[in-house]
Amino acid sequence: MNKKILISLSIIGIVAAIAVGGTVAYFSDTETSTGNTFSAGSLDLKVKDGDNPGVLFTLSNITPGQYYDAGTVTLKNAGSIPGRLSIKIKDPVSNENSLEEPEIEAGDAPDTEVDPGSYDANEGDGELWDLCFMRVYVDGNHDGKYTSGSDGDCIIEQNALDKTDYYHFPIDEDLFPIETNYYCHDEYIDLDSDETVDIGVQIYFYSDDGGGPEGGWSSQLPPDETGMSDDLQFTIEFGLNQIQ
User: Is residue 7 part of a domain?
Assistant: First the structure.
C-alpha cells in the first residue's frame, strides 16, 4: 500500500472520529432568576399608637378602704412577626411630701418611714406604697376597669406593688408564665402582627380596720393616717419579645 493511500485513510479516520464525537452532544437550555432576597421580620411595640407614651396612669385624692381604676392602655404589635408581651414594674418610690398632724400623731416623723412589716420594696420616706394594693390586668371587655369574675378581664399580677425583683414580678422571663404564677387562662400574652391588648391598673388603698382583699395583712401595715399627702410613683416597662 503506497503512502498516498495511507494518508487518505488516516484523514478519513480523523474526520469520522470528529463526526462521531459530535453526535454525543445534548440539548440544553438555561434560565436566570435575579433579585432573590431574604428579609428580616420586625417587632414593633406601640403604646397608645406611639413609641413614647409618657405618663399612663395617675390617681389623686385616694382614701383608705377604696378601689380605684387608674385606667387602661392599648398595646399593639405593629411589627410583622408574633411577639410575647412582658411587663415590668420598676423604680418604686413613695414620697412623704408634707407631714400632717394626723400623720405625726400616728407615729410618722421627718425622714422616717413607718414600716411594721419586714419587707420594704420602695425608696423614699412615704408610707403610701406599703398601704396600697395594685392589680395589673388584661382588660378583655375593654370597659376601662377591672371587673371581678368577668370572662374578659384577667389578672396578670394580684399584688404588683410588693412584687419587685425579689418576687420575680413581673412576667419578663419564660420562667414565670402567667398560667403558673397568676390568674390568666392563657400561659402567655402573645400578640400576632397588628394584634392589640388592653392592660389596666387598679389600686386598693388598705384600711387598718382589716377590710379589703388582703385584710389579714393589716397588722403588718403602717396606720392609714401615715399615708396622708404621700404619693407613690413607679415606672412601667412594656416589652415585646420574639417567640422562640
Answer: no
- 3-state DSSP assignment of residue 173: coil
Q: How far, in Å, CA of 122 to CA of 104, rounded?
A: 21
| pTM listed for this prediction | 0.77
Strand partners, 75: 47, 197
In a domain, 17, yes or no: no
Q: Is residue 130 part of a domain?
A: yes
Residue 222 Cα to chain centre, angstroms = 32
Domain containing 94 equals 45-242
- CA-nearest of 191, 227, 213 to 81 is 191
Q: Using CA atoms, how far apart are residues 134 and 62, in angstroms rounded to an integer? A: 13
- Cα distances (Å, whole numbers) of residue 204 to 61, 79, 134: 13, 36, 6
205 touches 65 (CB < 8 A):
yes
CA distances to 51, 81, 151, 161 from 40, in Å = 21, 10, 37, 38
Neighbour-count burial of 96, counting CB atoms closer than 10 A to its CB (0-12 exposed, 13-18 middle, 19+ buried):
buried
Q: What is the spatial distance between Cα 136 and Cα 130, in angstroms, rounded to a whole number? A: 17
Residue 3 has pLDDT above 70, yes or no: no
When pLDDT is averaged across residues 178-192 and rounded to a whole number, the result is: 64
240 or 166: which leads in pLDDT: 240
- Let me know if residue 38 belongs to a domain: no
CA distance to 70, 120, 189, per residue, from 50 (Å): 20, 34, 20
Q: What pLDDT, in 10s, does the model give residues 139-155?
A: 988 888 888 776 678 77
Cα distances (Å, whole numbers) of residue 66 to 61, 63, 113, 161, 211: 11, 6, 23, 16, 10
